[in-house]
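Spend some time on this chain, tokens included, and walk me through the fold:

. . .
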Amino acid sequence: MTTPPADTLERARSSPEERAAAGKAARAETPRSSHGEWEPATARPDPIDLLAQQATARVVELVPIRHGRMLVSPFAFFRGAAAIMASDLADTPCSGLEVQLCGDAHLENFGGFAAPDRDLVFDVNDFDETLPGPWEWDVKRLAASFAVAGRERGFDETQRRAVVVAAVREYREAMWRCAAKRDLDVWYLRLDAAGILQHWGTDAKKKEAKAFERNVAKARTKDSVRALSRLTHRVEGDVRIVSDPPLIVPLEELSSGDEAREVDDRLREIIDSYGATLANDRRHLFERYRYVHSARKVVGVGSVGTRAWIALFMGRDDEDPLFLQVKEAQPSVLEPYTAPSRFDHQGQRVVEGQRLMQAASDIFLGWLTAPGVDGQRRDFYVRQLWDGKASVHVDVMTPQEMTGYAEICGGTLARGHARSGDRISIAAYLGRGSRFDRAIADFAEAYADQNERDYAALKRAVQEGKVTAQEGL
């Protein structure tokens, strides 16, 4: 069972007045203005060394693809540099108030997906690094991501600052709104497509609103049926996942014939153990499906090199597909700087953190332990591959569009934090004024400078032959 940090639960049983007083008192220890400071630590770890340490636990032949994707731009580098920023955040001021963290709350780790009732909702959608910790860490990573993305779009400093301030202001105001609500009301809060249009659509141009509606309609078609048409073909009458190495490699291409069959047999047994992590009604649904085929798939930027699989199942007939993503869960990049996870299974850590932060989660969200083709047992979590997934296109955003999106992300993050943390204390700490907003905007711009220095360091390491990068994949 998922539970918030013990100190948060203890504080939640205090009166609202006591909780607000605790939040205000934290300002004396950690002034809000202090969050604007950023200077790399004297003994700051080499960012290239941190990437190299991560690479030791990944698929060797895929690591160059990760580096190649990080070289695309400073923003692409930022997406893959969660471990680097985690190390940096550990030395920044904190109020002492903890929440369940996303752990990698950059702007592209938010998006739309289909809730169990099939309504399209917007939420944080990546929890590989989730762990309890200081709420400021998520806020600072989100703010820095907008500063970095704004630079990539060619926004000037005034425009970038307006975007970041909008994100943090909405985080602060949403936390205040949550602080005034009953516990159950906070738990039931969620943002759907209609809510986005209602709240932000009035500021959008007619063309932008139409584009949003088209994206929502497109997202609703992105499901297992569409994945079946895009990712499979027929081989001697059987449905099989297509081969597109090194990005998609079917199981039988990773092992010799007898070994592949043995791994395939073990996989079928493992899938049964995954079903045990689902609620009974969802397990009943899952058991209607039969396993058909699987393949290793390269995903994202920061995740490249971790073991990720797609598995195809069929229900009533070959027109009733279910695609699941089975993704390796390694220890969170935050763990060296916080308390260890209370879950021994890293897949369970991801799933429980996701359930705690999200307003609605995938009905097939679960975990399992499985041997790799090398025989080593590893932890994984499981979710649907495509289920109404919708994401933003940062590379075409105007300053106005990015500002609106920043507000949506800031409010969504606050709602996620309010579910697990002491929303009253955090709101009181933030205050009603803009002091914290301005401080984080200062931090974001300074950290964007640091990110550019680290990006340049990776480019140099590749040029000097110290790091191997495979670009264009």
Observations:
- The chain is about 50% helix and 15% strand.
- Residues 435-463 form the longest helix (29 residues).
- Residues 224-384 form one domain.
- The chain has two domains: 17-219+394-463, 224-384.
